[in-house]
């Protein structure tokens, strides 16, 4: 076993901040966002890192988490690009951000409920429990290739459901 694995939170931050920052910068092409991504990654680790069973995997966990955070932000930014700022102010009104997040989360859970059961389980473990493909394969006791296929098909179903819901919402607004 490798004895050079950082054990305390401070040691982990010291060992991985610069590599995570550089990775974040390579993705975001922006110093500020790279710093935010690294900090958010350590924040998530502070919340969920204790559930990491194999401490030798902390480095890959951190890099995976930073990458997922980057993708999450890109998806969020992509959704916002479709609207004019004035429209967002009008539609958004004075609703508090935590209420909007709760509404978005509720819509996501509703959409997930519409996905076929065989795809719903891996999607839930991937998005809600933040498990890796390998961990999902172990939990569901199926080959990793099957998990990859089910996640791909499940994500496609989710996209279709979200598109349908978006169309329904815009039609109801007219």
Structure description:
This protein is an all-alpha fold and 174 residues long. It has two domains: 1-82, Rna Polymerase Sigma Factor, Chain: A; 95-174, Arc Repressor Mutant, subunit A (Orthogonal Bundle), CATH 1.10.10. The chain contains eight helices and no strands. Helix 1 packs antiparallel against helix 2 and helix 6 packs across helix 8. The longest helix is centred in the C-terminal third of the chain and has 30 residues, at 144-173. It is globular, with a radius of gyration of 19 Å. Residues 80-96 have low confidence and may be disordered.
What are the key terms here?
174 residues; 0% strand; 8 helices; Rna Polymerase Sigma Factor, Chain: A; globular; mainly alpha; Arc Repressor Mutant, subunit A
Summary, kept brief:
The chain folds into two domains: 1-82, Rna Polymerase Sigma Factor, Chain: A (Orthogonal Bundle), CATH 1.10.1740; 95-174, Orthogonal Bundle (Arc Repressor Mutant, subunit A).
């Amino acid at each position: 076993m490798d004895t050079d694995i950082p054990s305390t939170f401070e040691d982990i931050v010291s060992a991985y901040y610069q590599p995570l920052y550089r990775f974040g910068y390579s993705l975001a092409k922006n110093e500020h966002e790279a710093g935010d991504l690294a900090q958010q990654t350590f924040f998530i680790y502070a919340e969920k890192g204790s559930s990491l069973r194999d401490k030798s995997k902390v480095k890959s966990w951190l890099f995976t988490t930073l990458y997922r955070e980057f993708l999450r932000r890109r998806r969020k930014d992509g959704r916002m690009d479709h609207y004019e700022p004035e429209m967002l102010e009008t539609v958004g009104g004075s609703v508090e951000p935590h209420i909007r997040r709760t509404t978005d989360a509720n819509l996501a859970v509703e959409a997930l409920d519409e996905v076929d059961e065989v795809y719903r389980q891996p999607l839930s473990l991937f998005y809600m429990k933040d498990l890796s493909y390998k961990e999902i394969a172990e939990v569901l006791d199926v080959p990793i290739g099957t998990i990859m296929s089910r996640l791909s098909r499940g994500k496609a179903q989710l996209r279709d459901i979200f598109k349908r819901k978006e169309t329904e919402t815009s039609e109801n607004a007219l």
